[in-house]
Write a structure and sequence with these properties.
The protein has about 270 residues and is an alpha/beta fold. The protein is about 30% helix and about 25% strand. It folds into two domains: about 10-245, P-loop containing nucleotide triphosphate hydrolases (Rossmann fold), CATH 3.40.50; about 250-274, no CATH class. Helix 3 crosses helix 4 (about 115-130). The protein binds adenosine-5'-diphosphate and magnesium ion.
Amino acid sequence: MEYAKTDTPAIEVRDLRFSYPDGRAALAGASFTVHQGESVALIGANGTGKSTLLLCLVGILKGSGTVYVLGTEVNSETVFAVRSRIGFVFQNPEHQLFSTSVLDDIVFGPLNLGLSREESLTRADAVLGELNMTEFKHRIPHHLSQGEKKKVALATALAMNPSVLLLDEPTAGLDPRSSTQLIDILLRLKDEGKTMLVATHDMHLAEEVTERVIVLGESRTVVREGVPGDILTDESFLRQHNLIHEHCHIHERTRHGHPHFHRHHEDNHIHPHL
Ligand SMILES: Nc1ncnc2c1ncn2[C@@H]1O[C@H](COP(=O)(O)OP(=O)(O)O)[C@@H](O)[C@H]1O
Ligand SMILES: [Mg+2]
């Protein structure tokens, strides 16, 4: 399905603050906008509030400030209507998969939206096909590998045909091949124009899949926004915000420090880090 890229906000966050019951501020006044059809990375070191922010967007956590999703303010009255239009993929697929078959997990969302069993099954088949996972249809989610579980978790969100997709660390804990497969899937969704907000500290993912980057800092606020080409090449900024670390590897017989995620596009090759 094609989605038009527009200047219409899909997500608007204004001065969002949230503290956990122990009093620690997880978000201290974050503000940003994601437009319809945009694919945006929310990056920040561990503990800067990325997951908390996504949970506020779907009303699982309630902070102060305002959150608008698709023009509707998220509050106790609107939260269920808003959730029906957002696909949320938790970092940990165990939080998302609870049925005894992949198919049952995938039809759960569409059935909940009020679709008939037949329509829900058609959607499940379509999504499984798109993700190249048809053979997993009757498997037990609990028995799958981490990468397979992550893909099934994404399938459960996509089956609801959401207008906005929120993903929390989609590549965390995946081996390189599963990670590449997931990035390819997200790239396809981006090219289709799906609105996506991807929380990650995987700079490869941010670089490849998104067209804008929003950075949360240790201040728990947005410290910078911009295109990946500007932010992800600013090594001192990334180091300052604990997003890359120097480590040494050998490149063309020279030993030198290098940002962790860097790829040598100009040489048209990717080389492993030592
Ligand atoms: N359930 C919780 N109770 C108390 N503090 C929490 C809880 N979840 C997260 N935090 C704290 O809130 C801050 C932001 O966490 P989180 O949103 O998970 O960050 P990120 O996803 O960027 O790693 C961290 O300091 C973390 O320790
Ligand atoms: Mg997190």
